[in-house]
Automatic annotation (TrEMBL):
Gene3D superfamilies: P-loop containing nucleotide triphosphate hydrolases
Listed name of the protein: tRNA threonylcarbamoyladenosine biosynthesis protein TsaE
Organism in which the protein naturally occurs: Solidesulfovibrio aerotolerans
Gene Ontology CC, one term: cytoplasm
One GO term (biological process): tRNA threonylcarbamoyladenosine modification
Underlying gene: tsaE
Pfam short name (any one): TsaE
Length: 169
């Protein structure tokens, strides 16, 4: 399956990354646009900041203590829908517990966010997903979002409409 066209977003500062997370929360909370979010970028690129904006914007987000789950592998936030925040930095070869968490998340209608998504085995890639790649930029950050599956494409279209001021070029 070919991905839909990508959308590149310009994120001049942390506030813009948080705003992107809030926009994604509103979009991905809709079951018709619920797609997994796979994030790829260097350490300190803004992946966890984006997840913080996303989780805090959902109902129950004031109870979520968002932090990189590098040592836990998975954090589950008490939001509606629940957010399963997975970090594969320490397990680039995969881990059986990750598959169990992803299955539980899917069964419960949770929103799945995977940091270091490039380490997710190909056979575990969700059919409906947005892939966010942090790219080098002269100032701030760029994030290229690519959609897979019908719900991923619907989420990307909604993102373009919701955040036109962040769309690069």
């Amino acid at each position: 399956m070919d991905p839909s066209p990508s959308l590149t977003l310009r994120l001049p500062g942390e506030a813009d990354t948080l705003a992107l997370g809030r926009a994604l929360a509103a979009i991905l909370a809709d079951p018709g646009k619920r797609a997994a979010l796979l994030l790829r970028g260097d350490l300190g690129s803004g992946k966890t900041t984006l997840v913080r904006g996303l989780a805090e914007a959902l109902p129950g987000g004031d109870e979520a203590e968002v932090a990189s789950p590098s040592f836990n592998i998975v954090n589950v936030y008490p939001t509606r829908p629940e957010v399963f925040h997975v970090d594969l930095y320490r397990i680039p070869g995969g881990d059986p517990c990750v598959e169990e968490h992803l299955e539980a998340a899917a069964a419960g209608g949770a929103l799945v966010v995977v940091e270091w998504g490039q380490y997710l085995p190909r056979d575990m890639l969700p059919a409906h997903r947005l892939e966010g790649d942090w790219l080098p930029a002269a100032t701030g950050r760029l994030c290229r979002m690519t959609a897979w599956g019908a719900r991923g494409q619907a989420a990307l279209a909604a993102l373009a409409q919701t955040c036109p001021d962040l769309v690069a070029g």
